[in-house]
Write a structure and sequence with these properties.
This protein folds into two domains: 212 residues, HUPs (Rossmann fold, 3-Layer(aba) Sandwich); 89 residues, Orthogonal Bundle (Tyrosyl-Transfer RNA Synthetase), CATH 1.10.240. The chain has 13 helices and five strands. Strand 4, helix 8 and strand 5 form a beta-alpha-beta unit. The longest helix is centred in the last third of the chain and has 30 residues. It is globular.
């Protein structure tokens, strides 16, 4: 029986992924690869919408791929590749851009937010067409399911619209994917500013738990995390954002329910609670960090794995693109 197909990816935008990426994406991917024909990409073409040092981008791309594998995304169970290694992504994006309305692209929330913040002269065309490339990423593989956060749901809706538009104009060509939205409880907030989402662009590194942090650094960041003066370990997102954030992390990494954790630390104070969470985080990230660093120590083998997976992805992507070119009337090279 053919398994339904899944696609997702992350940008190589930092030397290390952070715990929000791990809980919000990688843990979910690890489970989904068991029941889906999963395609996971390091979307380096998307990263070009921001200025990059070439050598640093290559390094971040390898490091991101290594962390995928170290977190349990196994190349033997899923297709894990680098986006730019499969040129059909960029080729299909151009075709899809010709059936995307200018106003339609301009209404994408991320583009609107960033262009309003930085001004149109400082906003590149790549950022404007970013959702079209994302649509190409998804449609190339006849994807059934796309796991995304709330902030990407609009992009998947555009992908669905483009798939249906193409199918209506040229005949059934693309599967129409559906988004699987991550639960709100998977959203991880900054340890020092628990009302802001944890991000690589945070003002202070002290608020971010990086997957490749030394264990002692991770523990120190947790012990210094902002809480409140109440002293009780209980979940209340509005009144106790710092403690609630730590409870979400604890529950996500252990698979336990938040009320059970609250009961365990009832009357024990924040010191014991943070110490317990630090042990959980270090215990979870320690093996991941070790494996990622080992993979990066043998870059030739890592590159071989990525090349083999890219070849597999190219076969599927190439078949889709050939079908697209035939349907829109492009002349085949003989």
């Amino acid at each position: 029986m053919t398994r339904p197909r899944l696609y997702s990816g992350m940008q190589p935008s930092a030397d290390s992924l952070q715990i929000g990426n791990y809980i919000g994406a990688l843990m979910q991917w690890r489970e989904l690869q068991q029941s889906y024909d999963a395609y996971f990409s390091v979307v380096d073409l998307h990263a070009l919408t921001q200025p990059n040092d070439p050598a640093e981008l290559r390094e971040k791309t390898r490091r991101t791929a290594a962390q995928y594998i170290a977190a349990g995304i196994e190349p033997s169970k899923s297709t894990l590749y680098v986006q730019s290694h499969v040129p059909q992504h960029a080729e299909l994006a151009w075709v899809l851009s010709t059936i995307t309305g200018f106003g339609e692209a301009g209404r994408m929330t991320q583009f609107k937010d960033k262009s309003a913040r930085y001004g149109t002269d400082a906003t590149n065309v790549g950022l404007f067409t970013y959702p079209v490339l994302m649509a190409a990423d998804i449609l190339l593989y006849q994807t059934d399911v796309v796991p995304v956060g709330d902030d990407q749901k609009q992009h998947v809706e555009l992908t669905r619209d483009l798939a249906e538009r193409f199918n209506n104009r040229y005949g059934a060509t693309f599967a129409v994917p559906r988004p699987v939205i991550q639960k709100d409880t998977a959203r991880i907030f900054d340890l020092q500013n628990p009302t802001a989402k944890m991000s690589k662009s945070a003002e202070s590194d002290a608020g971010v738990l990086w997957m490749l942090d030394d264990p002692s650094v991770s523990a120190k960041k947790i012990m210094r995390a902002v809480t409140d003066s109440d002293g009780s370990v209980r979940f209340d997102r509005e009144a106790k954002p710092g403690v609630s954030n730590l409870l979400v992390i604890y529950a996500a990494l252990t698979g336990r329910q938040i009320p059970a954790i609250e009961d365990e630390y009832a009357g024990r104070g924040y010191g014991d609670f943070k110490k317990g969470l630090a042990e959980v985080v270090v215990g979870e990230f320690g093996p991941v960090r070790d494996r990622a660093l080992a993979l990066l120590d043998d870059r030739a083998e890592l590159d071989r794995v990525l090349a083999a997976n890219a070849a597999k992805a190219s076969e599927v992507a190439g078949a889709t693109l050939n079908d697209v070119y035939d349907r829109i009337g492009l002349l085949r090279r003989v």
